[in-house]
Every structure is written in structure tokens, then in C-alpha cells.
Design brief:
This protein is of the alpha+beta class. It has 15 helices and 16 strands.
């Protein structure tokens, strides 16, 4: 666990770069006496969670969904007063601080859900504090009255984008100053087509809008979706764009006997598609961290997922999870970076012959001959009859 803590700060520094690569679709809708708000969380993170925090003092109870990055990272949720929020990642918006305001402190989304009851409270918060998150995100809100709003940075100021309609859709672009006919985001348009028709029960309308906007690409999938009933406190959660089989929670019931948290991988049945998604997670997340920031972030994700996969899902991590990424990096012409991963693999799987052989070969390619000889010897201790390792060793000793 010390290694996880060591990389904790590194990965959070990387997230400012990582998250804008992903997208989310948020739908807020009032119909049939229902006030509903939902979201598609689009990424490739496997360690998805839902957690329930009881109110304490002046803080409200809340349900939040997001990721395990060594600690819970809120991506969206609802509080006991029926306030919903989520976020749309953006590229840099040239946000500027107001010198007359203090900076917001603490985890932004959790603070908002803990302290704000409605849209008026939200406006007061943003009018009181500098919120640097607006440089890279816009934040949709809805309260139990049915009013919705998106807070974004536009034309050098904080904008509260409201509407007279009974619905609002938010995706990953600044909407201020853009008419619907000028929107090119396919997810926004797909969701709006469903919402404007408003056919059927309100819950089905929101679900179908999210379904129409879900994604299933190699590097960007709808890892979960959820819909909050802002009057009843019910939360409908859908795993990996399976919109036919929700798990239903109720905020008030869940917090009645204290704090709770669940990995979505332990809440939902492991379908064939989800099993495949989990199985590719270690390698995918290691590669993702490396490509989005640096090798340290990739190693952080590897170690975090290795611990959580084994303890939470009972899924055995394989030597190939790390070596496959090392091979990709090597093929791209970065032998020194690949070597770092091969070395870590020997630490994780010290009794595995192939791990030591790959490490020895990588050392040889990096012209670290003495270290390569030692690694080949270690491989032969595990598998003394291997002719390939013997020949490689003899070649270096000549």
C-alpha cells in the first residue's frame, strides 16, 4: 500500500490531462410528476463505485458515483434535498480568478452536494468562491423543483445556463451562445431527439436518451449510467451500457444505518461482455496512464488495479498484463521505458520464468550485459532445461 500512496499525488496531477479525453452525457427531465436527472459516465476506468454518505451537522446525506483512485473520486450524484450534479469535461477555457473572491476548498462535487440544497444555493456558492474546475469542466445541476442549470465559463465570466423548458441536455462543449441548430455533438443531438419527443413514462424517456447517447469504443465506453429520482431519492444504476437490468438504490434507506460503498463490479452480474471488459482492464489502464501522462501514472494504475482486482473481484492478475504493455512500448521505440515495466514484472512475479526471460532480453537490448546475465541465470534457476535461455546466456558470455 505504500507504493499506492507514493503514486497517489502523481495520478491526480495527471487527471487534469486524462479526463478531457473522455465524455459524458447528462440528461435532466421533468415529466409525469417525476423530476429525473441522469448521466452516462464515459471512460475506460474499471474501478467504478457508488457510495452513500450520511449527513452530519449542517451537511446533507448524499449518494455519489465515480471511481476508486486510491480514494473515491466523485463524478456525479444527488443529495437528500434532491439536488443533482454531474460534470462535462472540457479543454482549457481560459478561466481567470476574481481577486475579490476566496478559492473554493475541498473536493468540489462532494462539497456542493454536502452544502447546497437547491439551485439558489449553487449560485451563491459560485458567486462567493473562485472555482478553478471551470477551466476544464462545465457542471450541470437540477433540483427537486424541476429547475435545471449548467454552470460554465463563457466570455470571461461564470454563466448560469438556465432554461424555461422541462428538460436540458449537457455534453462536452460550452453551450452559451450556441443555438441547438448549431450543435454538432452527436450525443447531444441523439439525446435531445428522444427528450423532445417525450414518449412514454419519464424514467423510460431519460433511460432511452442515455441509451441513444452511449458509447462503445476501445478507449471510451459508457462504463456506467445512473438516473436519480430527485423527489423519492431512488437511484437507478446501469452497468456498462446494459440499460435493461438496473440495480435500484434508495438514498434515504442506504444512509439509515451509516456509510456504505459498493464496487459496481460486485453489485452487477458479470455478463460475458463485462467479464471481457474486466479481463482487459489491467493492461488497458496501464497503457492509458502511460499514454495520457507518463510511465509513473501507468504503474500507479497497474498496482491499484492489481490490488483491487484480486481483493474485490477475485480476479487473478497475470504476468502478461504488464508484459503486453511493455511490448507495445518497446515496439514504439522506447526500450528504456519498456525495461522499467519488465523489471516491475519480476518484482510482482518473481517465480515466473517468462518474466525473467523477458527482463533479461530487455536488459540485453539496452546493452546492460552484466545485469542481463544475472537475469538469464535467474530464469534458468526456474527452468534449467530451457535451451533458448541457455543459448542467450552463452552468447553473452562469449
Amino acid at each position: 500500500m505504500k507504493k499506492l500512496r507514493h503514486y497517489f499525488i502523481v495520478v491526480f496531477l495527471a487527471l487534469a490531462i486524462c479526463i478531457p479525453a473522455f465524455s459524458c452525457t447528462i440528461v435532466m427531465y421533468t415529466g409525469s410528476d417525476k423530476v429525473l436527472a441522469g448521466s452516462n459516465e464515459d471512460s475506460q476506468f474499471r474501478l467504478t463505485k457508488i457510495w452513500f454518505t450520511p449527513g452530519e451537522g449542517e451537511h446533507y446525506s448524499r449518494v455519489e458515483l465515480g471511481y476508486d483512485f486510491g480514494q473515491n473520486s466523485v463524478q456525479g450524484g444527488m443529495n437528500e434535498m434532491g439536488l443533482f450534479l454531474d460534470g462535462n469535461a472540457l479543454g482549457p477555457q481560459d478561466w481567470k480568478a476574481d481577486s475579490t473572491k476566496p478559492y473554493a476548498q475541498g473536493a468540489l462535487f462532494d462539497t456542493l452536494l454536502a452544502t447546497c440544497a437547491d439551485l439558489d444555493d449553487v449560485k451563491e456558492y459560485f458567486n462567493t468562491y473562485n472555482v478553478p474546475a471551470l477551466n476544464n469542466a462545465r457542471i450541470p445541476f437540477m433540483d427537486r423543483s424541476g429547475a435545471s442549470m449548467v454552470v460554465e465559463w463563457y466570455n470571461g465570466k461564470v454563466v448560469f445556463l438556465e432554461t424555461d423548458e422541462s428538460f436540458q441536455v449537457a455534453t462536452n462543449f460550452v453551450k452559451s451562445g450556441i443555438e441547438d441548430k448549431g450543435v454538432t455533438c452527436w450525443r447531444y443531438n441523439a439525446a435531445m431527439d428522444i427528450i423532445k419527443k417525450g414518449e412514454g413514462e419519464a424514467l423510460n424517456v431519460v433511460r432511452d436518451a442515455l441509451k441513444a447517447a452511449h458509447q462503445n469504443f476501445k478507449d471510451n465506453k459508457t462504463v456506467y449510467s445512473f438516473i436519480c429520482d430527485l423527489k423519492s431519492g431512488d437511484v437507478f444504476v446501469y452497468n456498462l451500457f446494459d440499460f435493461g437490468n438496473p440495480v435500484i438504490f434508495n438514498l434515504h434507506k442506504e444512509v439509515a444505518d451509516g456509510y456504505k460503498e459498493y464496487y459496481l463490479g460486485n453489485v452487477f452480474e458479470h455478463t460475458k461482455r463485462y467479464k471481457k471488459f474486466l479481463a482487459s482492464g489491467i493492461a488497458d489502464m496501464t497503457e492509458f496512464g502511460y499514454r495520457m501522462q507518463n510511465l509513473d501514472v501507468g504503474i500507479f494504475f497497474y498496482r491499484l488495479h492489481k490490488v483491487r482486482y484480486e481483493s474485490e473481484f477475485g480476479i487473478e492478475v497475470k504476468p502478461s498484463d504488464l508484459s503486453s504493455v511493455a511490448k507495445l512500448i518497446l515496439e514504439e521505440g522506447h526500450p528504456d521505458r519498456a525495461l522499467s515495466l519488465y523489471k516491475i514484472n519480476t518484482e510482482e512475479f518473481p517465480e515466473n520464468f517468462k518474466v525473467w526471460f523477458d527482463y533479461a532480453k530487455s536488459l540485453e537490448n539496452n546493452e546492460q550485459i552484466d545485469e542481463a546475465i544475472n537475469a538469464y541465470n535467474k530464469a534458468l534457476e526456474i527452468r534449467p532445461w530451457c535451451l533458448r535461455a541457455k543459448r542467450a546466456l552463452m552468447k553473452l558470455k562469449v
